[in-house]
Every structure is written in structure tokens, then in C-alpha cells.
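Class, study these two lines:
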Amino acid sequence: MQDLCSRVPCSRRNVMVRDGFCCQYCGGRRELTIDHVHPVSRGGGESWNNLVTACMRCNQKKSDRTLRELGWKLRRQPREPTAYEIGLVAGIALRDLLRPPAEWAGYLAPYRERLEAHRRAAREAALGSMLEEGAGSGEELHPSGGGVWALSDV
């Protein structure tokens, strides 16, 4: 059977999910951004192979330089992930993935495990940033960078 989600959209959220919400330069999990491994100013593009998760500090330190110029190495080489790695399930609502009908449970178990792992990583990254900033409001930043989630939502 052909995979229904053979291509994963290259988005900020999916890059962070692929990288486990972890800076690919230092391993940090706070103030995460997206970095172009090969700088755009030097011809780098918007592709899976050129985008990685980076903490704000590493991203600013790297600026428009190459890894070779800095003597840096990536924790993992960027690549296009599979739909399974990102946890996409075509045509299935999130509520069904979290609380599937009994007959679906066996089929969805691997996706649920990955979803929970991604949610934990996103929660830890966002909470760490909030603690550093002294927010303490009971809310955290949405891992895709847009909006705010209540802690109970993740």
C-alpha cells in the first residue's frame, strides 16, 4: 500500500519536530529558531537539507557564516523525514489519534508514541525558555512560533 503522506511539507514546525526540538549545534532546547546551514546570503535555499533547528544564541553566533568557517559540526545531518518520523497520519483528526476508536488502536499506537514524544520535547523547550524569562504565567509558546498554548493543551 502506498504511503498516503509520502512527502512531508518543509515547515518551521516540521523541521523542529524532525530535530526533536533541539538545537543542532549545541543541543540546547531554549529559544529555538530555524537556521539555514548554508546561509541564504551565500546561495542557500529553503530545503530540508539546508534547514535545522538552532537556539537563538547559536543562530546569532553563526550569523551568515558556514560551519567550516566556524569549525562547527551538526549533531545530525539534515534530511527530508518520512511522514512516519514526523507523525503525520493522513485524514485522521487529532482527537482520533489521541483517543482512537478501539479497532484503530493497534494501527495508531506508533503514531501516538511519536506524537507524545514530540509534545514532551516541545513542552520542555517552551517551559525552559519561560523559566529563563521569568514568565510564570502558566502558558507556553506554541512550538511552531505562533500563538500561545495553555499548559493543559499540550
Q: What stands out?
A: Confidence is low (pLDDT under 50) at residues 135-154. The beta strands are 32-36, 51-55, 139-141, 148-150. The chain has one domain: 12-153. The longest helix spans residues 105-133.
